[in-house]
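Step 1: inspect the first sequence and its tokens.
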Amino acid sequence: MAAPNKGRRQAGAPGRPGRTLVLFLIAMVALTGGMFMSGHVTPRLGIDLAGGTSITLQAKNTPGKPNAINKTNMDTAVSIIERRVNGLGVSEAEVQTQGNENIIVNIPRGTNEEQARQQVGTTAQLFFRPVLAVAAGSPAPEPSAGGSPSASPSASTSASSGDKAGSGDKGTESGSPSPTSSETSQGRAVTDALKADETPSTSSSPDASASASGDGAADGKADDKATPDPSASATSDAETAALEKKFTELNCENEKARTEVNQSSKPSDTIVACGKNSGDQWEKYVLGPAELEGTDVDDAQGVFDQQRGMWIVTMDFTGGGTKKFQSITGKLSKQQSPMNQFAIVLDGNVVSAPSVSQTLGGSAEISGSFDQTSAQDLGNILSYGALPLSFQEQSVTTVTAALGGEQLEAGLIAGAIGLALVIIYLVTYYRGLSAIAILSLGASGVMTYTIMALLGPGIGFALNLPAVCGAIVAIGITADSFIVYFERIRDEIREGRTLRPAVERAWPRARRTILVSDFVSFLAAAVLFVVTVGKVQGFAFTLGLTTLLDVVVVFFFTKPVMTLLARTKFFSSGHPWSGLDPQRLGAKPPLRRARRVSRPTDPKEA
């Protein structure tokens, strides 16, 4: 018969409980120390406990899409807003629809509340449009009687090559509202730019024949529109005149004018828009049809440019977006200023209008008067995409924590009563073993609290009322694991074994039961977290976390402590107050089969 392997620990052997217990205590001390060193000694609270801001957004139809307000687009908007807010580190932000047109956003206090408020309703419609003309952002002042109009800065930035402020017609003596020289210059710049945009020529004042046949020459194809249609020409002239008027009269310093100037425009339209230059001065632009959209952006982030010492937003394009970007920059690089610029237009405003000198690849950057917050905010918005609808902020309400505080107090009282009842039951029924259970509950409580406090700044976890309920429910789950182990030990003692062998033999059976039970609880928490939204996710997250900690505490604290205490005289001798008294448990000595002794046969009996 082969000798047993002495180097291999048999099942049920005690192992090294002291080392396991020391490792657990070191981990617990490290977590607690990390909590104090991080400065976050209390968990982050949700809006129902800490208060915060509640924002109501009303959806508006997108121009050209009268039926855009539907369930699919509303659900998409909720998902994007939630990702934007959580991207700022604001967890437990509730985003949900109300009715058919409203979205409610609840942002807890103590987070990036103001940043989140600025981002929730931002549509983030991003377009890349070629620049056709540029001028000063405010209308030129009318000249005084008998004087000449003041010089306009549009002379150096517009697409016109020969017009200068002050060289055109002057106002009449009676001060009639005839156009000023600067306004005429701005209008002519728009006309020249639109004509130049229709031809391959870089000249800012192309003739009529070039305008009619330039596209065909540029593409090397026959031009189907070589013969002009009088009605189309009249329509084009009317549109150009309307665009000239809009561009000339636009005052970019007026917020309402900036908002309404291209509110009903489409990506395929030529538009007028406003933006600030590097000197923080307003400029107005005539922009061609969109060449790229926000959907062509794969990723965006705000970064600090060490060489230039400024914050910028970098963008990486998708495969299709890269091809489009290369095409448009290749065309723009052959144009003269300002028509070699492309404008990055976000929600109708020009955030940047860089010039192009060569064909660019699959990435771009937005530079301007960014600080760290604004650059990272814009990168966050662009990364998560544009909202499918436009939203108007209907109301902003400050939520107090008074009601939540009362409910939390009631919940904590209920939890304390439940914990007290559990301890009374343990002491009454398990006596000395209850000390192990109470120590294990304390260790589980410390681990749960420190991890919740660290998860606040780590992943933005915020404690709300359902999460508190999940923690209270976990008391019963944790106590149940101890009871399973204690009952297995008692069963072994009832079978006649002494305490130390009983502790080790009971562990494999109890371990299997505990793992199965905790797996079912964790699976239920995971499913609940996936299929629910809002506060219910807080309950599911806390329940799953405490279930995992229950396994850790039972394996690395309760079992080693039980093994060590089984070596003490108080427990090993079966003291009446140990909870392991063999007589109280009804233990019987093990049955031993007596040996049968054969007797000699009596001849008389035979």
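Step 2: inspect the second sequence and its tokens, then contrast the two.
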Amino acid sequence: MRSKLLAASAVALLLGSGPAVAQRPAAAPTAAEAKAFVENAEAQLEKANAFAARAAWVRANFITADTQWLEAKAGAEQNELATRLAMEAARFNGVQADPVTARKLKLLKLYLVSPAPNRPGAAEELSNLLTKLDSTYSTGKFEFQGKQITLNDAEDVLATSRNPAELRQVWEGWHSISPVMKPDYARFVALSNEGAVGLGYKDTGALWRSNYDMEPDAFAGETDRLWKQVEPFYKNLHCYVRARLNEQYGDAVQARSGPIRADLLGNMWAQQWGKIYDVVQPKGITSSYSLDKLLVEKGYTPVKMVKTGEAFYSSLGFEPLPQTFWERSLITRPQDREVVCHASAWDIDDKDDIRIKMCTKVNAEDFSTIHHELGHNYYQRAYKDQPVLFRGSANDGFHEAIGDFAALSASTPTYLNQIGLLEKVPGTEEDIPFLLKMALDKIAFLPFGLMVDRWRWQVFSGEVTPEEYNDAWWKLRLQYQGLVPPGQRPADAFDPGAKYHVPGNTPYTRYFLAHIYQFQFHRAACKQSGWKGPLHRCSVYGQEAMGKRFNAMMELGQSQPWPETLKTFTGETRTDASAVADYFQPLNVWLTKQNRGEKCGW
């Protein structure tokens, strides 16, 4: 996570005298003035980031009233500065600036996820709301079997229990922590929208959709196009999984037709279904290994898992992680304090102080997550020499896809054999179990990755009012995922708040895009590496020539429109889900055969 919090000194710089804010003559601004303004703005942003990034890091690692106050103060100052800079940037609309300056002006107006209104007290109120929402989520606990449990504990129950009453109790328990957020979230929406309108956008959703080098409505249409490419495969998977759940639990719990009960899929948000592989595994076909067991048997620790992730990137020719990474990262959950356990990668100083923060467990899921989070760090370091406003991913989907691309190789038995975790690579007879496990996470995620922001776009536009928040959420979950809650929801329910990225105010379409890009990257990388076998068996571990080309793409940061950056590595200029179909083709054929006679859809 690259923090964009800005410190009080930057506000002072902005409010003081200087070319960025001095009273302008009546004459129209010039291209030279636009360039000078951008250079001045970048200098302020660079100076400000260090303090505020550390304020965010400390709050995430030591959740107290004091650290929340510090982060909220830093956030308010950041929002005031960035909002003022964005409004200043708008003054240069229509100026024939050079292409680099013009792009920087555009990015400056998009710098904040949620800009505050440009009036006294608004930035402070918005920042306080966001800090409160994030901390409410991160400290959430509920009672289960006589004791207070955290989300981590609840996720373990959902992953391992096959008692539907117990699953429902845990699912409803976690969702009981979020109703208190609803008034604050509604107020946040109003403030964020007011700020977005002040910058010339219809609402915050339109601002978010403007980050993709195309018109906001065109981007919405692009995501629709991509969904249509993968929707038939998702419905095939849904149909197969529903039948297996029916066999496991019976008609009274899960019917053979219609939607699936959301608490039965092994994940609190039913966004990944891999934890119920034991329920849906193919009959008569078994996998000869379990990565969970291999990691334990080989004596892996959380730190060794991170070292293994680093070794993957080193094999591509990337420089090792700095010593400060090991000294300053949070790799396991501390027992003496509250922390934000949601895994994230941090760039503290826009140079080399990169870190991860996660409550690592020794299992296959976290093995993959480590490769993913380190991808953020290597990307952050790759573009560190770009100007401040270009220090970001080509679009936000790229940042998520970089690590997921690495994790595609890291999940293969080919890679596990290469690093000594697996003695022998299984034959093709194990391809269906492998691909099914992958699809339970990768394909199952796609509709959820799309609908979270579909809900927020409707909220920000006013199409959905606070009274309709929960009903609209479940309408979309049914439409896209084919899911329903385990029982009737309370009148005050605010189930969107039970997903971190909603109270954490992190746009989510990036994850949908990442689940497409990662397969595009993987297909291109395997081709460049000379791989001749099926895509799902390809590992790019040790491919330095490919790694050099991949790093060249990462070094570009946000300096040009993302289609041009995509082309530098893949040769393609359009997001294309056909790589997903190529990867999973054998499984889709198999699923179609298994689903004969079923009433697929919902």
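Step 3: confirm your contrast with the notes below.
The two ends are 37 Å apart (CA to CA). The chain is about 55% helix and 5% strand.
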